[in-house]
Amino acid sequence: MNERPGPDIMLIEITPEGYDLDLDLRYATVDNIAGRPIYGRAACFLHMDAAALLGRAVALARPLGLRLCVFDGFRPAEAQWKLWDAYPDPEFLADPRRGSPHSMGAAVDLTLVDAVTGTPLDMGTGFDDMRPESHHGSLDVSAEAQRNRLLLLGLMTAADWDFYRNEWWHYQLFKPRGRYPVLSDTAAGTRLMPERPA
Q1: Catalytic residues
Q2: Number of neighbouring beta carbons within 10 Å of residue 103
Q3: Where are the domains of the chain?
Q4: Where is this site: Transition state stabilizer (predicted)?
């Protein structure tokens, strides 16, 4: 693991009150690809660089009557291993030996919701739907879903995020590898992973 203490480890908690967005942290529930909670508590963190860009995306969505809803942010290295053990497909999950941008606090999974009703926009598939239909540019989803994905893509790229072509929900900082360390829960100080029984 590429851990080192110091100024690189600057994770900020992302809260609905602090960032004017919604949280639906799936890895703290059974509603995820592992079928069981990966995190011991529902909390979201991002590197300070990513948190600043998330704030920019929130500001761009607001005048359109939209809010961001975040599914995941920082993902400790241990959590990446648990997901990989449940679904070892490099088309959708970063091999934990290589390190995921999530484990650097440099990636976020999210969608758009109507700011008035709280209803998620139709994206054609759910979060972590590991099928080709989840790819950006898939023509196998409705025209409405394609428009909504392109709207999310436009907001996020205008806020200076990079995207991952296989997952409509995944955005990350440009070229995070080598710029940010891969962190364990302990090194990050996030206390996301379940406590082990004594």
Answers
A1: 167
A2: 28
A3: 11-188
A4: 75
What are the binding residues for Zn(2+)?
102, 109, 170
Q: Token pair for residue 127?
A: 């979060």
pTM of the model: 0.94
* Bind-site residues: 102, 109, 170
Contacts of 183 (CB under 8 A, 6+ apart): 1, 3, 9, 11, 74, 76, 77, 103, 104, 105
For tokens 């806020």, name the residue. 159
| Model pLDDT for residues 135-157, shown as the tens digit of each residue | 999 999 999 999 999 999 999 99
> pLDDT, tens digit, for every residue of 32-86?
999 999 999 999 999 999 999 999 999 999 999 999 999 999 999 999 999 999 9
8-44: buried (b, 16+ CB within 10 Å) or exposed (e) per residue?
ebebbebeeeebebbbbbbbbeeebbbeebbbeeebb
d(CA 186, CA 191): 7
CATH 3.60.10.10 matches 11-188: no
